[in-house]
Amino acid sequence: MKLLPVLVLTALPFYCYAGSGCPLVSQLINQTIDPKVSDDQYIENFKQFIPDAEAEDAVRQAKQCFLKQSKDTLTNAQVMVDAIYNSVWCEAY
To answer: Scanning 15, 29, 39, 54, which has the fewest C-beta atoms within 10 Å of its C-beta?
Structure first.
């Protein structure tokens, strides 16, 4: 059980860094939340990270979940992402 907090504390700087300095991760998050980006366009934009047809199907299903949400829900998802990146825990990174 002691290993879990160590892993979380080790991963937190990388997670925080992704929101403040990695354009690829920011692009991925923004395109996932954006209802104007179709699932085909989403797959095409991130094709280099999808190894096979099974993974492509999983990515397509995940994007479809976001496409089915209301604008309020998508706005709240963006607010949550912003809150995480601007949190006290990410402040030091």
So the answer is: 54
